[in-house]
Amino acid sequence: MPEQLATYGEPGVAPSHWTFLTNHTLVLLCLAEDPAIRVRDVAQQVGITERAALRILHDLAEGGYVARERVGRRNRYRIQPNALMRHPMQRATRVGALVEALRGSRP
Q: Do 101 and 29 touch, CB atoms closer than 8 A?
C-alpha cells in the first residue's frame, strides 16, 4: 500500500500542486524544530517519502547547510546558520535568517 502523503488546502477542494516553500526549506524547518528528528517523522511532516527526505537531508549536508552528527543509532542535525543561500537573488541571505524569519519567535 503506498504511503499517504500530506494534502494542502481545504477539505473537498482539489489540492494545489505547489506551495510557497520548497521541500528543502520545509526539511530545514523540521530540523530547526527538532535537531534529533527521525527521517520518518521529517517525511511525514513534510508530506514526502522517506527516500525523498533522505535525499534532501543528503543535499543539505553536501551543500553545507546542515551538519550531521551520529549519536548512538540516531543522527542529530545542526543547521549552519551562516551558510549563504544558493539562488542568485538570495545569495546575500544567510540560511539562519531564513529559518528565523519562517519560525517566528519560537525558540
A: no
Amino acid at 31: L
Measured between alpha carbons, how far is 15 from 7 in angstroms, rounded to an integer?
6
d(CA 54, CA 71): 17
Parts of the chain with a pLDDT under 50? 1-2
φ, ψ of residue 68 to 5 degrees: the values are -110, 130
From the centroid of its chain, how far is CA 51?
A: 14
Domains recognised in the chain with CATH numbers: 23-101 (1.10.10.10)
Predicted model pTM: 0.81
Cell of 93: 541571505
